[in-house]
Amino acid sequence: METGCIGRRIAYWRGFRGFTQADFGRLMGQTRRWVQDLEGGQRQQDPRLSVLVRAAEVLRIPLEQLLTDGPSESPPAPSPPVEALAVIDVLYREDNEDGDPPPLTELRRRLTYCCEAFQACHYGALGRDLPMLIAGSRRSAARADDEAGEAHVLLSRVLQLAASFLHKYGPATAVQAAVVADRALAAAERSGDPIAIGAASRRVAKSLMYQHQPRTAVEFATGAARRLSTELEAGGPLGLSTLGRLYLSAAVAASSLGRSPTVVRQVDEHVGQAAEVADQQGADLDEDYTMFGPTNVELHRVDVLTRLDDGAEALKAAADLEEDALHGLSKERQAQHLITMARAQLLTRRKEAAAESLIKAARLAPEEVVGRESTIDLVADVVGATPVPGGDLRRLAVRCGLPA
């Protein structure tokens, strides 16, 4: 066996699974330096078969993928989930219905239902209702006259929701999410509404992250915040929530740049900017379903610390959160926090706690766990790191389609 080739294949599949060297080392029961040496072909002349078998298990690939002398095969492109297919289809379909579009009051009512479904993590229901809402709001904006600005704001909000929905499924829907986020921004700019423009800019920044352009995402989010700050600050709680979420988007994007003192300072700066806006707002509010406020800022602090592989500091920050404030957030936000906690707990080798966090998240919002590839991968990592998984963890793994 050629050690260098095996190391490069391990590095390839580690990157594809989204593991840092520290993540992979932890799952292998080794150090980050050990992984660096292994991937660089410096561990030993011929890696032991037991090491390769364990690496294949952790990476969830056939052992042959590490032993093949030819170039690694490209991983199969993920398929969009069923609940997203109808949404994707309507994005590329021409409107050919005759008659007047639904009135704005009816479209707003449907949008409220869909936003509430999103916050409750009822993604199946959202996938059924969102296509009709997209088509109706698009027709309304195309035929608007006196209410042109209002119709385009509504269309932008609908497309923003569609982008957030598609972002839930990661690489499988990343391209379509980017398309719809750009359309949301175009509709917002046509309306001239600074709050709609700021909210749509946040979705574009997230799409840039999924396109592996975190630096551009940071610049885009902070640029929008600078350009719109005066108008957003004058826009009351809704404007402040929009501005604060832009800073949080910048913080999350910056945390994907790779850990360094400069990046840590940059992330902390953006979280601090969001905290200042939250203090100005004065309370946790759900303006336009943003769930923005002091609590959400602290949840993002926990999240970015976890993304920076600082699990200990993330758990320390989480310990300061107030339970009552957490329970006042949407199910989607609570479940996301529990998933983040599971990642931080796994980083700090608290495997049982990580399992319990995932189990709680699945009980609270099943579709946030069992229907998302990134979370399923996390469940697999926790199962793989647990010598004897408990019954609840095994049942969760089975629900996720994983061997238990």
Structure in words:
This protein is mostly helical. The protein folds into four domains: 3-67, lambda repressor-like DNA-binding domains (434 Repressor (Amino-terminal Domain)); 78-192, no CATH class; 211-329, no CATH class; 330-404, no CATH class. Helices cover 73% and strands 0% of the residues. The chain is built from 22 helices and no strands. Helix 15 (294-307) runs parallel beside helix 18 (331-347), helix 18 packs parallel to helix 21 (373-385) and helix 21 (373-385) runs antiparallel to helix 22 (391-399). The chain is globular. It starts with a helix and ends in a 5-residue tail after the last helix. 47% of the residues are buried. The mean pLDDT is 90.
Structural class: mainly alpha
- The backbone outline, from C-alpha atoms, is globular
Order of helices and strands: HHHHHHHHHHHHHHHHHHHHHH
> What's the structural domain tally?
4
Multimeric status of the protein: single chain
Which stretches are poorly predicted, pLDDT < 50 over at least 5 residues? Answer: none
Q: Work out the strand percent.
A: under 5%
**End-to-end distance:** 32 Å
| Count of helix runs | 22
Radius of gyration from the alpha-carbon trace, in angstroms: 22 Å
Sketch the major β-sheet. Answer: none
Work out the number of β strands: 0
Integer average pLDDT: 90
Helix content: over 70%
